[in-house]
Amino acid sequence: MSETPTYLCDVCQEKEALGAACSALGPVSFQYCGECAFDRREPEAMFEATLDLVGEDVALHVKVAKTIVDGKVLTWDEWLAARGDA
Ligand SMILES: [Zn+2]
Fold it and tell me: Which of 9, 50, 65, 75 is the most exposed place for a label (fewest CB within 10 A)?
């Protein structure tokens, strides 16, 4: 009997993922748990990629996205501010 493999969420790295879905920020898929998916959270790498490609002035769908850094959920603007402090 084969077991269905389970995956950890690529965003929080804590909860079991519900499944893979396309990122809201680019043509790539990640594993998302329900909490991260419904809270529009993305892996921090997608924020880094967006900053590299677009700069700080982003579209609304990026502004409403969030990511997790050191266990803290940050919006785009909060993430930018936190980078500035680093
Ligand atoms: Zn998650």
Answer: 75
